[in-house]
């Protein structure tokens, strides 16, 4: 039963996070991008803080290290990632599926940053090849016109790539800082801090609440992103992280683009291009090269699970 529970939650999480790219795209028709991201995390941060107060006895960061983790999370994981992502998705040439595929580069970038910040570790030739594959995948997906690099959404797609890099770097830096703060507390205060930073950036960009068109679509997109994709999505993510480990849960990033493409097609009439598919396959190949040892170590355990399942089925 637990095996089925994990599988159901895994695909629900992939669906929730994949459809979030469609919700962002839809909401950007009515709300300025950085303000949209800030309001999303105003709501999600309050919800997560309430959950942290309920689920832990450590709802407030303590000491310099814990507040340092919150600062890194606020600036990179929340503000940097979401501000760049929302601005990038503002370009009509960037589909929900394309944005999801670029963000799926995050696990690969995380591995690269982790090795870069650990002096004792060096990328092997296959590891370097994995990084190159990932970067090539982004270029293929972006499909820039050499005669006009500013056309066809290329700049927007590289902004989303920069967003993925912010998230990856933030993930590495938060893990490097010695802190015993519960993950719920870290996420809650990072969301609140990131929302405040994005409000400041939003004001600097000249965005205001007067620019918001409070349509049913805008409210639905904001509610979905704040409650389903952020608050509930992160709770499911943390649960699966404990149960499955980082290797298996990282695969969510590679399943999410499928749901992003389906949601974009169903609600926005978007059709994925050949470049989106090829770029995704190249990025996934790069991830597989970088994570080849961990994946190889994981395969025997997966085989044992399958063998055990088949034995019970025969019985």
Structural features, described:
- This protein has 315 residues and is an all-alpha fold.
- The protein has one domain (2-314).
- Helix content is 79%, strand content 0%.
- The protein is built from 13 helices and no strands.
- The longest helix has 29 residues, at 216-244.
- The radius of gyration is 20 Å and the shape is globular.
- The protein starts with a helix and ends with a helix.
- The model has no long low-confidence stretch (mean pLDDT 83).
List keywords for this structure.
membrane, 315 residues, EamA_dom, single chain, 13 helices, mainly alpha
Beta-strand content bin: under 5%
Rg from alpha-carbon coordinates: 20 Å
- What would the average pLDDT be, to the nearest integer? 83
Major sheet: size, sense and barrel closure?
Answer: none
Share of helix, binned: over 70%
Count of β-strands: 0
Domains (count):
1
- What is the count of DSSP helices, taking H or I runs of 4+ residues? 13
Structural class of the helix and strand makeup? mainly alpha
Helix and strand run = HHHHHHHHHHHHH
What gross morphology would you assign? globular
Spans of at least 5 consecutive residues with low confidence? none
Q: How many angstroms separate the termini?
A: 16 Å
Pfam family, one: EamA
Protein name: Permease of the drug/metabolite transporter (DMT) superfamily
InterPro entries: AA-Vitamin_Transporters, EamA_dom, EmrE-like
Main location: membrane
């Amino acid at each position: 039963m637990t095996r089925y529970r994990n599988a159901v939650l895994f695909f629900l999480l992939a669906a929730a996070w994949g459809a979030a790219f469609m919700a962002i795209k839809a909401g950007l028709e009515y709300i300025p991008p950085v303000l949209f991201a800030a309001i999303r995390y105003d709501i999600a941060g309050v919800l997560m803080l309430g959950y942290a107060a309920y689920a832990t006895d450590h709802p407030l960061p303590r000491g310099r290290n814990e507040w340092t983790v919150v600062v890194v999370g606020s600036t990179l994981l929340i503000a940097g990632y979401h501000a760049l992502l929302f601005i990038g998705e503002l370009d009509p040439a960037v589909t929900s599926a394309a944005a999801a595929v670029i963000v799926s580069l995050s696990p690969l970038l995380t591995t690269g940053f982790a090795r870069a910040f650990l002096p004792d570790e060096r990328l092997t030739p296959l590891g370097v090849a994995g990084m190159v594959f990932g970067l090539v995948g982004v270029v293929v997906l972006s499909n820039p016109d050499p005669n006009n690099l500013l056309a066809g959404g290329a700049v927007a797609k590289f902004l989303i790539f920069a967003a993925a890099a912010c998230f990856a770097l933030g993930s590495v830096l938060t893990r490097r800082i010695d802190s015993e703060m519960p993950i719920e507390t870290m996420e809650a205060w990072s969301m609140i801090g990131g929302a405040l930073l994005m409000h400041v950036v939003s004001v600097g960009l000249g965005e205001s609440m007067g620019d918001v068109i409070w349509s049913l679509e805008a409210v639905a997109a904001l509610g979905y992103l704040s409650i389903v994709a952020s608050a509930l999505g992160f709770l499911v993510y943390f649960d699966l992280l404990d149960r499955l480990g980082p290797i298996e849960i990282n695969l969510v990033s590679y399943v999410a683009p499928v749901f992003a493409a389906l949601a974009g097609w169903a609600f926005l009439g978007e059709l994925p291009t050949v470049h989106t598919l090829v770029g995704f396959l190249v990025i996934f190949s790069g991830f597989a090269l970088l994570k080849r040892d961990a994946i190889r170590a994981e395969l025997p355990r997966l085989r044992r699970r399958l063998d055990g399942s088949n034995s019970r089925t025969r019985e």
